[in-house]
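Appendix B, example 12.
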Amino acid sequence: MAIISNPKTLDLNDIQGMVIRGYGKLLETAYFLLEVNNHKDAKTWMQNILPLIDSADISSHSEKTLHLAFTPEGLKALGMDQKNLDNFPVPFKEGVATEDRSRILGDYGENDPSKWRWGGKTNSKKLHAVLILHTKDKETMATFIEKEKERLSRNGGITIIKEMKGYLRPDNKEPFGFHDGISEPVIKGSGRPGPENDLVETGEFLMGYKNEHDQFPYSPLLETNQGNSTLLKNDAAGSGKKDLGHNGSFMVFRQMEQHVDDFWEYMDSKTKNKDGSTNEEAKIKLASKCIGRWPSGASLVNFPDKDPGGSLDNDDFGYADKDPDGLRCPFGSHLRRNNPRDAFRWYNKKQSLKITNRHRIIRRGRTYEIPASNSNDKDEIGLHFICFNANLELQFEFIQHAWANNNQPRHLSNDIDIIIGVPPEGDPNNEKGQFTIQAEPVNQYLDNWKRFVTIRGGEYFFFPSISVINYLTTI
């Protein structure tokens, strides 16, 4: 595989930047969960911040960025006609916390939405939108937050119902200690070069373009004329209607607490020396087998025996030729099962990659920390998981349900994703589950691990184009 060019064909000035850019130099993040109190004043606020919303055009980048997304209730609160709301896809209209979505995602037990801190079933205030801020450092963020809070307070049409903060480590490692954000798809037409295997059709992430099925993804069309519809693009599929989704995406936002001590204590318990002392090298190797990469980010496929160190974010590899039997990177590792690359079909690399690319997501997660409320508790650390996809069912939900939670994938038996997988409701403690490490002459098996991730909040959002945000101020 080789790094290939990817000519810019998209109108990047109309696409909110987070879909295309990861903002790796803007380390601080803040999230304002918002409620619309007065739709006229809310639209005035949106008009005021519209020039600040960062586009995907790299020339627009600065020391701070701002992005905006909406829930169905938020679009309704702004005045969107019900017939136009009805044209949005079912998962978005239902929201992530409904019974149907919980069954698909495995949100039961400790992950049940009734226990979430936001989103969920029990929140008294409505979640209508999320405002996302990025800055280069804490000082700039503090000033940015103060200014935007003052703007909201002065406007009065929208209130903050919850504020959260996150950050990106300079070494880009997530709380378990592994280099994150490496295997990201590159959107065709974005102008960004990348590995050939990671170049994915535009319509997998942005509505209004063909996807890996050579079809236009489902997009919410304007059923009833309202507002200044001249601001909207025509439906690219040729229906003659205006398209609310063009250059937009759907955003998944999940707050995931990571039980870091439990994770490393488990790895230690399975790799101790005969005298009971810690075998640090074996512990790290086992954890890397579970994740699917070394802590540095180096691929197990290219470096099967030891972490070469450094920041090796090489993503230019496949499984089919170098590791068809999973002896380097286990079939059930977190990264391999959620991005099987060219080894989804063992008999056809090209078809495998095509199938895999129909289920890709663009991740934009950031670490968060919450200090303990008293001396007996531990600080909480985890991930504000964000991803973008044009089809919630075929991308995010498919990955979680069919790949992470599936305990009967090819080559495996009773194996779920050891990081984010959810055991069947009939076996909530995963007593029948295992993690298989392919080895010679016989496989190795791990069992009796605690769940290392707990969901603390979440929702699905419509992440519209900049022109559609402008349109929403006119309805």
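The mean pLDDT is 94. The chain has twelve helices and 18 strands.
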